[in-house]
Specification:
Radius of gyration: 18 Å
Distance between the termini: 30 Å
Strand order of the largest sheet: 8-7-5-9-10-4-1-2-11
Order of helices and strands: EHEHEHEHEEHEHEHHEHEHHE
Largest sheet: 9 strands, parallel
Shape: globular
Number of strands: 11
Number of domains: 1
Structural class: alpha/beta
Number of helices: 11
Helix content: 25-40%
CATH architecture: 3-Layer(aba) Sandwich
CATH class: Alpha Beta
C-alpha cells in the first residue's frame, strides 16, 4: 500500500522518522479544530469535498495506508471508506464501539454506524473492544445488525453481560483474560467467516487506544491489547482476505486538544478522561508503533508526492 499522512493536529507530522522520506503530507490543520470530536453533517460534507480536491478526486483507485492523528478524528474514517468504489468488508480495531445510533451529528463515536449503512460495506468486524459496550451506552448499539451477524464483535477478553448481549454472538479475542491471542487464535475465530472475507477486499481502521497504556499514548481510555495481538489480528484478517486490502487508516496518536466553538469544548470537557501526558514521551511511543505498522503493513515504502494544502471552505 502507498502511505499518506493527513495532518489534522500535528500528532503524526511531529514524528520525524515516520514523516521522513517522501511520503505525502496533506495539510488539514485548519480543519482540525472544526471537526475534532464532533461536527454537523454539513460541515463534514464540506470537509469531504475539500479532501477530494486535495487528494485529486472523490475515489481511491489504489489502496492507501493513511495516518491522521488523534482518535478524536476517528470519524474521518467515514470519509475514507466513502472513497471506495467496490464492495468491501470492514475491520475496526478499537477500544470503543464507535457505532452509536440516534445522534443528530457526526461524532468519533458514531462514524461506524454511518459506515455500516454504505451500499459498498458488507460484513463488519469489530475487534478488541472493552469500553462503552455494556454500560449505559448499550441502548445506542445497532442491535439488529448485531443480532443478524452483519456486525460481528470480538471483544478484548470478556463476554458482555448487560442488556441484549445474551442474544449476540461475541467470542472474545483472548481465549482467557490473561492469555494473549496469537495468530492461531485469530484463525480459529475467523473460521466461520473465511469465505466472506475471501470474497472481497478488506478495509482496516485501527485506533491505537485498543492498546495498553504502555504501548500507545492516546487521548482516550487505553485498552488491553499488546501490539503483538494487534499484529496477529491484522495478519489473520489479511490472510483470510487473500491479501486483498482496500486500504487502512491508523488513528490514536495523542495531541493537545484544540477545538472551535462551545459545542466541541463541552465534548472535550465531559468526554475526555483526565490524563497527564508528557508530549515527548507520547511522540516517541506512538512513533515506534506507527513505524512498526508501516514496515509490517506497507513494507516501509515511501511514495513521492509534494505536500498538499486542504483549503478552508
Amino acid at each position: 500500500m502507498d502511505v499518506r499522512i493527513l495532518d489534522l493536529d500535528g500528532a503524526v507530522t511531529s514524528q520525524k522518522a515516520l514523516v521522513g522520506g517522501r511520503r505525502p503530507v496533506y495539510n488539514a490543520r485548519d480543519w482540525g479544530p472544526r471537526i475534532r470530536m464532533a461536527c454537523g453533517f454539513g460541515q463534514f460534507r464540506r470537509f469531504e469535498q475539500n479532501l477530494s480536491d486535495l487528494l485529486g478526486g472523490e475515489a481511491d483507485h489504489e489502496p492507501h495506508m493513511t495516518f491522521y492523528g488523534s482518535g478524536d478524528f476517528h470519524h474521518v474514517s467515514l470519509a475514507l471508506v466513502r472513497r471506495l468504489r467496490e464492495p468491501f468488508n470492514l475491520l475496526v480495531i478499537d477500544n470503543h464501539p464507535d457505532w452509536m445510533r440516534g445522534v443528530p451529528f457526526l461524532h468519533c463515536g458514531t462514524w461506524l454506524r454511518h459506515a455500516s449503512l454504505l451500499p459498498m460495506a458488507r460484513r463488519i468486524f469489530h475487534v478488541g473492544g472493552e469500553v462503552d459496550f455494556d454500560n449505559s451506552y448499550r441502548w445506542m448499539a445497532p442491535w439488529r445488525e448485531l443480532r443478524e451477524g452483519r456486525i460481528t464483535p470480538f471483544p478484548a477478553y470478556r463476554r458482555f453481560r448487560r442488556g441484549a448481549w445474551a442474544g449476540v454472538e461475541h467470542e472474545p479475542l483472548r481465549p482467557a483474560p490473561a492469555t494473549h491471542a496469537g495468530r492461531k487464535r485469530v484463525e480459529e475465530l475467523l473460521r466461520p467467516y473465511r469465505q466472506e472475507l475471501a470474497d472481497r477486499p478488506l478495509y482496516i481502521s485501527l485506533d491505537k487506544d485498543v492498546l495498553a497504556g504502555n504501548e500507545a499514548v492516546v487521548n482516550w481510555d487505553s485498552g488491553l491489547l499488546a501490539i503483538s495481538e494487534v499484529n496477529a489480528v491484522l495478519d489473520g484478517f489479511t490472510a483470510a482476505a487473500d491479501g486483498r486490502l482496500a486500504g487502512m487508516d491508523v488513528v490514536g496518536d495523542w495531541s493537545p486538544v484544540h477545538v472551535q466553538g462551545w459545542f466541541r469544548k463541552i465534548f472535550h470537557l465531559t468526554e475526555h478522561p483526565s490524563l497527564e501526558i508528557d508530549p515527548e514521551y507520547a511522540n516517541h511511543v506512538n512513533q515506534c508503533v506507527n513505524l512498526r505498522l508501516l514496515v509490517e503493513r506497507a513494507g516501509g515504502r515511501a511514495t513521492g508526492s509534494k505536500p498538499g494544502v486542504l483549503q478552508r471552505a
